[in-house]
C-alpha cells in the first residue's frame, strides 16, 4: 500500500505540472491574440489601410524577440538543469564520445550550435565535433566569464564566423563549478531574418548592449567586423542628437536618417541587458498616425514580453512547489526524513543551537496486529495532529520512520526541551483515539539531544536515539536526555 501511495505521489505533481504548463501556454496564446486584435480594431478606426499595413509590419517583432532570442535562452536554461549534462561534465575525459553524441543530438533537434566548456578537463567540446583547449591565450572569454559573478551571459564570439552565444555556468549538487554550457546561433541566421523583414516592411532593427555596442542589426554594414563592435555613437543620425538625448531614452524620437524622417521605438531585452531599437521610416503626412501606432506596438510588445516572463517565472516557482510536495509524508502530512534533514542542515548553516527530539509510539506494533493497519494509520495521523498543534510555532515536526516522529526545536536548550517534551508526553498519554467502535490509548517515549555548534545530523540523532533507548528501558511513557560530550 505504501509503495503504491509513493508512486502515486511521485506521478501526481508531474501530471499537475504538465497540465498547468499546457493551460498557461494556451492562456498566453489567448491573451496575445486578444491584445493584437484589440490594437488592430482601435487603430483601424483611425485609418483602416494604414493600420493593417503597419500591424503586419510589426507582427514579426514579437516573433523576432521570442523565437530568435528568448527561445534559445529558454532552451539553454532548461537543458542546463538536466542531470545527464552534469553527469557528463563531472567526468568529461571518460565521456568524450557521449559528450559529442549529446551535443550533436541537441544540434539536430534544435538547429542550434551547442558546446560544453569543462573546468575539469579544461577543454571545450562543440556540436561540430571540435575540441579546443581552454587556455587564456586561445579562449579568453572563458576565463573572463568565469571571473564574473553572473551565472548567465549573452555574447558575440567566434570572429571568423560570428555567433550569438548564451552561456550558462554549471554547478554540481555541492555547488562546485563544473564549467560552462552554451548555445550558439550564427549571425548569418539573424541577418537572413532581418533582411526578409526589411525587404517586406522597410523597417530596421538595431540591438545594442549596455555599452551601446551594436550586437545584432538588420544593416549588414553595422555588423561586427573582425573583433571590433560598431558603436551606436558612431552612427551619423545618433551624432545629431543632443547630449541629453544620447544619454536618455530614444523611445518615440523623431529624427532624420539619410534625409528621410524616421521614428525610433525602444524596447529593453532585460535577460540580456540589451536594448532593441525599431527604426520606422515615415512620410510627412503619416507622422502622427505612425507615431501613435508605434507607441501602441511597443506597448503591446512590452506587455506580451512581460507576460512571457511572468508565465516563465510562474512555471519555475510552481515546479519548486512541486519539489516541496515531494518532501511531505503522505500519511501524516508532516515533513518527511529528507525534508527534516534539509531543515537541520539549514539550522547548522545558520549556526543556530537546536534540540533534537525523537518520539517513538510505545507498543505500536500490537495496535496494527490487533486492530489492523487502518487503525494504526488513524493513530499516526491523530498523534501527528496533536504534536503539531501543541508544538511551538518555530518548532519543526516531521515523521522520521514508521511509528517514530522527530522534533527540531531551534534556539532551545536541552533542559527547556525536556520540560516541553514532558508536557507533550502527558498530552499524548491523555489522548483517546477512536477507530470505529474501538478506543485506543497510546503513549510515547521521548529522547532529547542538543547541539550548540554545527554538527552532522547523524551525530545528534545518535545521541537522541540513545536517550530514546533509555526511555524505553526505564519503562516507556517518559522523557530522557542524552547530551553530546563536548556540549
TrEMBL record:
Domain GGDEF intervals: 352-484
Catalysed reaction equations from the record: 2 GTP = 3',3'-c-di-GMP + 2 diphosphate
SUPFAM superfamilies in alphabetical order: Nucleotide cyclase
Coiled coil stretches, renumbered: none
Transmembrane segments: 20-43, 293-318
SMART domains per UniProt: GGDEF
Keyword match Calcium: no
The protein's Enzyme Commission number: 2.7.7.65
InterPro entries found in the cross-reference section: Diguanylate_Cyclase, GGDEF_dom, Nucleotide_cyclase, Rev_trsase/Diguanyl_cyclase
PROSITE patterns: GGDEF (PS50887)
Repeat as UniProt keyword: no
GO molecular function: diguanylate cyclase activity
Broadest EC class assigned to this enzyme: transferase
Keywords of the record: Membrane, Transmembrane, Transmembrane helix
NCBIfam families: GGDEF (TIGR00254)
Protein's name according to its UniProt entry: diguanylate cyclase
